[in-house]
Amino acid sequence: MAEKTYLQAISDSLRLEMRRDQRVFVLGEDVGVYGGAFKVTQGFQEEFGASRVLDMPLSETAIVAGATGAALMGMRPVAEMQFADFVSCAWDQLVTVAAKQHYRAGTPIPIVLRLPSGGGFSGGPFHSQNPESSFAHIPGLKVVCPATPEDAKGLLATAVEDPNPVLFFEHKHLYRRIRGEVPDERYTTPFGKARTHRPGEDVTVITWGAMVYVADDAAAKLAEEDVSVEVLDLRTLIPWDRDAVLESVARCSKVLVLHEDTKTGGFGGEIAATIAEEAFEQLDAPVRRLAAPDSPVPFAPSLEKAFIPQVDDVAAALRELAAY
Amino acid sequence: MAVREAEPVETLQQVKEAGLDREDLLGIYRNMLITRAVEERGHILYKQGKIPGSFYTGRGNEASAVGVATAMGPNDVGTPLQRDMGVHITRGIEPWRIFAQYMGRADGPTRGRDGNVHMGDSRLGLYTMVSHLPAMLPVGVGMALAFKIRDERRVAVAWCGEGASARGDAHEGMNLAGVRRLPVVFVIDNNQWAYSTPAHLEYAVDHLADRAAAYGFDGVVVDGTDVLAVYREAKQAIEKAREGGGPTLIESVTLRMEGHAVHDDAFYVPKELFEEWARRDPIERFRTWLRDNAELTDDEEDEITAGVKRLLNEAIERAEDSPLPDPSTVTDGVFAAPDELETPHHR
Amino acid sequence: MSTGTEVEVVMPQMGVSVSEGTVTRWLKQAGDAISRDEPLLEISTDKVDTEVPSPGEGVVAEIRVQEGETVEVGTVLALIRPAGGEAAPSEPTPAPAGEQELVDEPQAAAQPEAEPIAEPPAQPASSASEPEVAEPEVAEPVVAGAPVEAPAGEGNGRTFVSPVVARIAAQHGVDPGGIPGTGQGGRVTKKDILAFIESGAASAPTAPAFSSPLARGVLSSKSHPNDIQLTTVYNTVILLHRGGLRMYLCCLKPQN
Prior knowledge:
- The structure holds 3 protein chains of 3 kinds.
- Chain A is α/β, with parallel strands linked by helices.
- Chain A folds into 2 domains: 2-182, Thiamin diphosphate (ThDP)-binding fold, Pyr/PP domains (Rossmann fold, 3-Layer(aba) Sandwich), CATH 3.40.50; 195-323, 3-Layer(aba) Sandwich (Rossmann fold), CATH 3.40.50.
- Chain A has helices spanning 6-20, 44-48, 60-72, 91-105, 132-136, 149-161, 211-224, 242-252, 267-278, 301-307, 311-323; strands at 2-5, 24-28, 53-55, 76-80, 112-117, 142-144, 166-171, 179-182, 195-198, 203-207, 229-233, 236-238, 255-262, 288-292.
- In chain A, α1 runs parallel beside α6 (149-161).
- Chain A is globular.
- Chain C folds into 2 domains: 7-81, CATH 2.40.50.100; 135-250, no CATH class.
- In chain C, 21% of the residues lie in helices and 22% in strands.
- The longest helix of chain C is centred in the middle third of the chain and has 22 residues, at 97-118.
- At the A-B interface, α3 and α4 of A face α6 and α7 of B.
């Protein structure tokens, strides 16, 4: 066991995978000599060589298609988009080729796409997005959003083992701000299993990624007001842990679905609709969603604060639910 | 790094130098006949309402497809497109499975999940195309990337149409291939028409092969109706890639002899063009060459033709007997299971 | 392929967006011989004009669509009788077993689907104050032997009150528990409560008068008219409770 940052946990996990399996290799922009824009792969090229840590041309298509073709030939590529926002350049490769190949041709495409996502540091519209929902909507892709260092390490290992294309969203805001105890050895964390970040009884918050900490801070405030708030960290969106969500809703009967991505068409809608369909009779209040407003991510700090759900926003929503 | 125009193969001796013997030549001829017959029969089945969706053929491209595929090694891989039925035939996909594919049957290569030439067989090194062209071109480059990383003497062949070459995927794929000197051969099927759009509205250079220099490798233009010339160029390029010489761009020029699909009668193509290229029909051309240079006899011809007819009759019958897919399986196979990963490459 | 029965010639779909075609010219007439794949007629569609090759070998038995007529894709245009074959009802184009199953499935699916919805909720929301000792054993899952269509009052009544019913009930000072329910598992639907209010029954108590204050209080809040059975020896009151039943043996003095 050791205390590691979220970033170190990811780096460790990837290093262990590359040591364990010769088929695993890394490709992306600036991942080799530079060690990656966020330094996740620092030291990798020295350890694993230039043929397993590839500095790719500025081409998301070439990176994702390159990974797809290599995976068809038996490799286990872990590709990196420098920012999650740039995945839109590789949209076609993911949605047209990677997502649909196994369904049609029976050939698995075991690729992992690492995506530094999220905002909160004036990154502006093109360095701050959480483009998870559009990919969650495409059958054939898996979507993973760890919140803790321990989960990040285990989920990445699972992603590398998974025979399907996995979009691994690493929230940049958590990279160096969040530390946690992480086992030294390799372990896998299952997809489709949520984690109770904070147990509670009166209201439950269903969330993932950086919002887990925002929800937790809001829950702490409400505890002082005698409202017991549960925080459920989904950890993965495709697949997502329906049973855990429904169980939490059945116990608490009041639920807030929270995500940093924009509201309309955000994945929270899917969760809310499922709750309404399947837990209608357990509800003691309408299902609420809290998410960023429907705009591009703004640059100025004052605007960004109005965009990203803040602790006070979450606390206010929880109070309303508690009082309903 | 200049663009060359390939020369025709004239004699049996030249053929032998290119690595083929007489048996191989008859095999090539047969494959071209099967390719055309599969598409002609499929065309009829479509008009009889037995094939759903749409129907595409590569009439006029038989030599280009069969020529390149014949030059590929057994462990080489490829991403052929909708005009390249000859690649599937040559690599060994059985005609009955092709008809089952057309008809959306459960025994087809995609088990009814995709239609017309969107098929493949990874055991034969063929990877199923998509409609967004040429999205599979950079994927083919990715295959070559794996070969390079593992230091394997295998080659990927990535196809592209002259229309599809206008898309970024072609540029991004070729650029990566040139930068990393990957073992991939690019074949541009230039049949001069992208649906109703003529070549001069798709690119501004004289030859698409001119672009190879921009990516750091050689380009060559070849008469796509001359199966032996295609074979020779493809063989040269594939072996060069195998030896670490990097990519080549082969531009194979033909005319698309039918519409974009069966619902298109190609009224926009000047009749004279059809007439001119009909005189250069690749099958007829090779048949003449075989008679003149390889002593193809009437008996041999009849035997081959009868064999092809028999093969196709049996194929259609078998495909028609194949069941339709079970509707309850509609979501099967969206995700792969861990035990499906074939892992022969674990150093 | 057909043996002895007629083969249908259908209007093909010439392109994915095409939904109909026009017969422009018959190349053969009824009674003419025709070979497999031989052109039989010409058609015209929005996209292309083309010929239709014959799917069968034999004689053109019947022409059903005339020149100039426009029909939908899939329409039978003609029938071909194989040489030496009898005129017989034409077979549809290959109908696999799968299609048969498709017809039967919706009915088969209906029963299993009913079950999850009818299950009692995991935890009764307001159970805290009542002694629940007997209930777990007595409670039957509503689904067992209770088809969806069963009217309320078969002993497995449900007291789940949906938000809209609760609102209407509150507005009219009505207790949903005293209303006949026709919804899933016997619950009171919006229609039920609106009908109840409209019928004027809201103001009349449904319970017979009892002298026991306990019984009256209980009856007025939870009873259903059909469930109160009085006998000369035992005065039994069957109370409906969420997901189960509770029986009271009450010694009650009937009012007269």
